[in-house]
Design goal:
homodimer; 6-stranded antiparallel beta sheet; 12 helices
């Protein structure tokens, strides 16, 4: 038994051919005063398994009851250097259980696991060389444009009448699926597992309420003890015709309560965002192009926000599948400079209809190498980024008295101008204000006083004035996010710092504290 | 006297040195049963002038009373071919009085008239070769970054205590100003005259209420009879500290009621839009970057909408003065493909601080030639463009019953999907919805069934399906808005038409009815 690695017990028993999804099989693991109860599962051929994820090293005893009775002891060794435990949400960022920062740079391959072995192999090879550390992928197969093939296996066997027998999980499906998940997580990639989605011709999106929970129960028995897996309740929950909001809330609650380890849990929208403030939800997983609102959403949810669908780099005749590589790269930088996270996807139409976004295969686009460049920069920053406060967003939230207080504290502020601005903004109709202010958004974030990041997006500033803290010295770098170059402009910047810029778009400015650097 | 040309009567009289702004000098022009009363003005050196703009040909009699008494008759000849009268708002577009369509392609030179003669000359030379047919310019000089010079003249003489004597307009100022206006309008460029603005160190933005109206009265006496002039009450009315909303309403009402001809009248915002639905206002003049809302604003105001400030092409360290040429060009296309209009400006910082946006001089940017290309295309379309209806914007405004009716009329629509979409969009919080839907906006407009225009913006479609009317044949052109190329894709398109596109950004598709072409 090793900390942060799945511990598995296998027992032989009676061969089951019916109703083997939610067998009685409970294990209690105890270490000192801590105990954790987990459910085992039937794995076919008369094999009964219990999986456990030890989160602390130490001496464990375990007791299995139900379909199998057994007990034992194990010494759990401290984690190997390459194992860090589950990723957890901490404030508005992510960390592994051992405290190592995790910054998501995701991609999307919805039907990764539902392709033939050769294509899965190619996808895994591609992922190995790609900059992504998270992949959004579905448990159920996908039916949609360019996605009409049958998967090798389905999650369930069928009944005599041809309907899905959720009480008989397809063991071959799960073996293959877990192998794929393991190969992904072994590469250091988090599998953001989509539990339900609407693009379906087989009936998986329209199971009964009871069958949904039975499916989830079996999935949680099998997968909960595996690190590197996140639960995404849905892709586009709001387009799933067969599930009401209360169905989703029940699903959310079921997953949250039946996962013994608290894997990350989110729910992805098409239009109306899932309320990420709900207690079962660990972070927001949002589909939108409205990235200017990120600081507001982060403040509202007080949880990490991932733009899990910002459109895909490609050439489809659809709005969502036809952004340029440059735009994809900019969206990643906008998110990074908002203290949020972005997810990639790619939809170049090929003759064989193998598009990365759903089937995998190879990457054809120009954004991944630039996302790799961004990732290297972000991972060099000593701490998670938080959107800068201030600006118009803060102003419009102020009451008259608060403004007066602020102005009295800052005699250097142009008080009359601020009062005029505030009054005018407050008078705007809400929808005009939202879209108007979105167009004025500044992408800027900081990691405490250790690092400050500005993404200038499509602005072509010829110069820029940085407001850096006094009393620390910063190395200021000019970053061309498309050309992937970084030029040091100033080695000892401090306080108000004016820099010259080349008047082109796609530039970022990073100031890293020289002290912060060696932290 | 010629139709659409200023007719001027000059009389000699007593030389006035005090209080000569609002002298009693009234003229009544009659033609058949029509009469129009106009006010004359004192033009210095004992000269009294009355200006009149005949809008119909015919036999006129005139009677002048007040400081001067005189009468006479004139035959007004029908308009020369190059004169079309005032530009008027008609529905949501603009036409000259003779019915000729006017499509604004504006630029901005705020302090054009407040530069020395050599620079004014250079600006006019530049305008002659530029694609612009409207220029936003101020009556009062500008004080702001890069604008610290004194103008040759001010609109008023001063009192003994150094304050402005609004009762003594500076005749030399007006002579020079009118000469500049005439040279601009003779080039076929409309002067969008900004009557007040906040960027001031002389006190013009903080005149008393009475002085504001006295100034406007004199201005209207002098300029109303000149075609080619529009009234813009303000640049950024909401940043003018010395004027309340009711001051602005009074100014609006004063201008509307004291202009005998009904020149175009608008009011430009920084944040809160001026309510263009107000009866005195002829069109919306908006500063914003939120162009996705254009169809909504046009529908709301039922008047033409000009984005009179969409940022400036340049390299200033300000958000508003640092967009790329490409972005400027795209904003023009976005407006055009929304049935709206856009205004250019340029802010490249030069050593002499002569920036086009305020002082004029030369154009350094790459957008003007591309705006010329757009203008040529738009002016080839037989009629004004109107944003396409339909899409998500229309959907969210529907009630349940209206959706059911729509679906029952269109059995081919995916009813379940539309109901889900509608329910989800309606559940969104207003500000989330606004910004979310803005990101999904399609730029598409049409001129009746004669022409259909799609601007694909930054989308990189590899193919596109056009829904053209049945029963007419269209020539479909692919336009590269940056490269300024146009390629015919199909000479006889009809109904649903699929076209192949090269999967790059900055493309527009124009379908012009072969019948419409010869109209």
């Amino acid at each position: 038994m090793k900390q942060y690695e799945t511990f598995e017990l296998t027992f032989s028993g009676r061969i089951l051919s019916e109703d083997y999804a939610d067998i009685p099989l409970t294990a209690v693991f105890s270490c000192g005063s801590q105990t954790k109860t987990v459910q085992g599962f039937y794995d076919g051929d008369g094999l009964y398994k219990v999986r456990f994820l030890p989160e602390e090293p130490g001496a464990y005893t375990w007791l299995v009851t139900g379909a199998v009775s057994a007990e034992g002891t194990e010494i759990c060794q401290p984690a190997d250097i390459e194992h860090h435990g589950l990723v957890k949400a901490v404030d508005t960022h992510f960390e592994f259980e051992d405290g190592k920062l995790f910054t998501p740079f995701g991609t999307t391959v919805y039907a990764l696991a539902h392709q033939d072995d050769a294509l899965v192999e190619q996808t895994l090879e591609t992922l190995k060389a790609a900059p992504f550390n998270k992949v959004r992928m579905c448990v159920f197969p996908k039916d949609y444009d360019y996605n009409h093939n049958e998967p090798p296996y389905y999650a369930f066997e069928k009944t005599a009448d041809g309907s899905w027998d959720v009480r008989r999980p397809c063991i071959a499906f799960w073996h293959r699926f877990e192998t794929i998940l393991e190969r992904i997580t072994e590469m250091g990639i988090q599998a953001d597992l989509i539990l339900f989605h609407p693009y379906d011709r087989w009936g998986f999106s329209a199971l009964s309420r009871e069958d949904n929970l039975l499916f989830l129960d079996y999935l949680l028995r099998r997968l909960s003890a595996k690190p590197g897996i996140w639960w995404s309740l849905a892709n586009e929950y709001d387009l799933c015709a067969a599930k009401s909001l209360s169905d989703w809330e029940e699903i959310e609650s079921f997953v949250a309560h039946n996962d013994p380890y608290g894997h990350l849990l989110s729910c992805h929208n098409c239009f109306c965002f899932w309320d990420a403030a709900r207690p079962g939800i660990t972070h927001a997983s949002i589909q939108t192009k409205g990235l200017s609102e990120l600081p507001r959403w982060i403040a509202k949810y007080q949880k990490p926000v991932i733009i899990d669908e910002c459109c895909y780099e490609g050439n489809l005749p659809h709005f969502w599948g036809s952004i340029s590589a440059r735009e994809m790269v900019y969206r990643f930088w906008r998110c990074a400079a908002s203290g949020a996270y972005c997810t990639h996807g790619e939809t170049f139409l090929a003759d064989d209809e193998v598009l990365w976004w759903a089937k995998g295969g190879i990457l054809r686009g120009e954004s991944p190498e630039r996302i790799a460049f961004l990732r290297k920069i972000i991972e060099s920053i000593p701490g998670p980024l938080t959107a800068n406060s201030g600006g118009v967003f803060q102003l419009i939230q102020m009451g008259e008295q608060e403004i007066e207080t602020t102005l009295s504290q800052h005699p250097e502020y142009p008080g009359e101008f601020i009062r005029l601005l505030h009054a005018s903004i407050c008078r705007m109709e809400a929808d005009d204000r939202t879209v108007h202010l979105a167009g004025e958004h500044e992408w800027a974030a900081h990691a405490g006083d250790d690092a400050w990041l500005w993404f200038n997006d499509r602005q072509c500033f010829g110069e820029q004035t940085l407001q850096l803290p006094e009393g620390r010295h910063y190395r200021v770098e000019l970053i061309d996010v498309w050309e992937m170059t970084s030029t040091v402009l100033n080695e000892n910047a401090c306080g108000t710092t004016k820099i010259r810029l080349p008047g082109k778009e796609g530039l970022a400015v990073l100031a890293v504290s020289q002290r912060g650097q060696v932290r």
